């Protein structure tokens, strides 16, 4: 049996002119960690590198990275529709709406039934108003909300208009529920899950999240971070390949 591992074939990159790189963000990495790792791999070239849409450290999946002149189009890529899959835990809440903080309230799940859980998704389809989590990167008066929250300060959150085109339940094994969401830019899945729990007179928090698509770009076509970084570094002796 042939057990040879097939080596990934990379295109001919031109980073200064602009490359759109699809990266699979690892668990517990920040989006900036990914950008920083790629930017450092491109030294000594002094190029702009940025991402089109932040993923929380506890989320994984598709992160779009732009280099060089293509960074001017980051807002266009960021505005595209997003798709996520994930898991929520019913019967409890956390201040951050995910695993970043400890459970602060618990609820009985004995009355929860599939017949009420699935229809509850319909309440969140379409244009809705959503409050970002207190533990989020939204800026109020020049400071990130999560900085204030970690100091124990009360934070003023402003509702934002978002659009959810798909919210479906894909598995129910209480207290766990798996889901898929297709939504607009600016949607906080953590807030969606928190509000979903409230709509069932219960509690819920996010335990797993993965971005599977952004616009036409899909995670299955993404590079692993260190795979991409290793390839870029291998081009350094032949800088004409990346200039």
For the structure shown, list the relevant keywords.
2 domains, about 20% helix, about 240 residues, Pseudouridine synthase, two-stranded antiparallel ribbon
Kindly describe this structure.
It is a single chain. The protein is built from 6 helices and 14 strands. Helix content is 21%, strand content 31%. With 243 residues, the chain is an alpha+beta fold. It folds into 2 domains: 20-79 and 216-241, Pseudouridine synthase; 82-214, 2-Layer Sandwich (Pseudouridine synthase), CATH 3.30.2350. Helix 1 (31-41) packs parallel to helix 6. Strands 1, 2, 3, 4, 7, 10, 11, 12, 13 and 14 form a 10-stranded mixed β-sheet that branches. Strands 5-6 form a two-stranded antiparallel ribbon. The model is unreliable at 1-6 (pLDDT under 50).
Number of domains: 2
Order of helices and strands: EHEEHEEEHEEEHEEHEEEH
Give the CA-based shape: elongated
CATH topology of the largest domain: Pseudouridine synthase
What proportion of the residues form beta strands (DSSP E)? Answer: 25-35%
Helix fraction, binned, reads 10-25%
What characterizes the major β-sheet? 10 strands, mixed
The overall pLDDT, averaged over residues, is: 89
CATH C-level of the largest domain: Alpha Beta
Instruction: Report the structural category.
Output: alpha+beta
Radius of gyration: 20 Å
């Amino acid at each position: 049996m042939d057990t040879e591992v097939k080596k990934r074939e990379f295109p001919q990159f031109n980073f200064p002119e602009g490359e759109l790189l699809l990266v699979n963000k690892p668990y517990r990495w920040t989006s900036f960690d990914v950008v920083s790792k790629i930017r450092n791999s491109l030294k000594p070239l002094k190029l702009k590198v940025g991402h089109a849409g932040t993923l929380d450290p506890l989320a994984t999946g598709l992160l779009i990275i732009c280099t060089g002149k293509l960074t001017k189009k980051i807002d266009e890529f960021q505005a595209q529709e997003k798709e996520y899959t994930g898991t929520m835990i019913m019967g409890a809440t956390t201040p951050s709406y995910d695993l970043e903080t400890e459970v602060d309230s618990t609820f009985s799940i004995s009355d929860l039934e599939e017949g009420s859980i699935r229809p509850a998704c319909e309440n969140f389809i379409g244009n809705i108003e959503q409050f970002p989590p207190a533990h989020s990167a939204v800026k109020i008066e020049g400071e990130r909300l999560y900085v204030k929250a970690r100091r124990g300060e009360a934070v003023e959150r402003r509702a934002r208009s978002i659009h959810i085109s798909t919210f479906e339940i894909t598995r129910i094994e209480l207290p766990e529920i798996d889901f898929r969401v297709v939504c607009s830019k600016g949607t906080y899945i953590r807030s969606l899950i928190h509000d979903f729990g409230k709509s069932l007179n219960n509690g819920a928090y996010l335990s797993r999240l993965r971005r599977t698509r952004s616009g036409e770009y899909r995670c299955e076509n993404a590079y692993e971070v260190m795979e991409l970084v290793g390839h870029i570094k291998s081009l350094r002796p032949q800088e004409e390949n990346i200039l």
